[in-house]
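Lecture 7 notes: from sequence to structure.
We start with the chain below.
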Amino acid sequence: MFHVKHEGWHQAEDLAGVTLPLGAVDRLEAYEAALIERAAPMGMIAASDVPRLRERHILDSIRAVPCLPDTGLVCDLGSGAGLPGLALSIVRPDLRWVLVEVRRNRARFLEDTIASLGLEGVVVHARRAETFRDRVDACTARAYAPPSKSWASAERILEPRAPLVYWAGTSFEVSRDVPEGVKSVLFATPGLARSGPLVIMTR
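Predicted structure tokens for the same chain:
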């Protein structure tokens, strides 16, 4: 691990609270360019978000690094343009990743981007989440579904003590939004104060 020297990417440490591994900055920049040049025109990223793409989407995704397991397989539910799963796979290439995305144009974008970035250990499951049946060591869900549905999708494939990392909105309330019987821990990112907390859900 090293401290980022590339101009602008020091925000990843200052705001998201992570340290980027060797080679991650070049890949993140290439991924950012693909989001602007391909994903945004295809409607995967709102046009209004393009000027703040790095903070709004990429840094918001990689702030989950401290919540991920040390080893194993992670499933990103409803990956869309790869936020958070593809961004996280760049920062945690030591993990294996499966990006679940049923929409064909988005799945193709993910496959093309994975190939162009040379990301090993990352695959796309281009079918509905219900058809994915492997056991995983963590799930991620960002802009996928409400908490209860996200947990229902994750619970059936999570190993017994494995977490779902859920991106919550600023109005999230544990007593109201966490499914009954599910344990939860909130993980806040002070540098990205405008973002809601990450909610770590387990059985």
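Points to note: The CA atoms of residues 35 and 149 lie 27 Å apart. The two ends are 32 Å apart (CA to CA).
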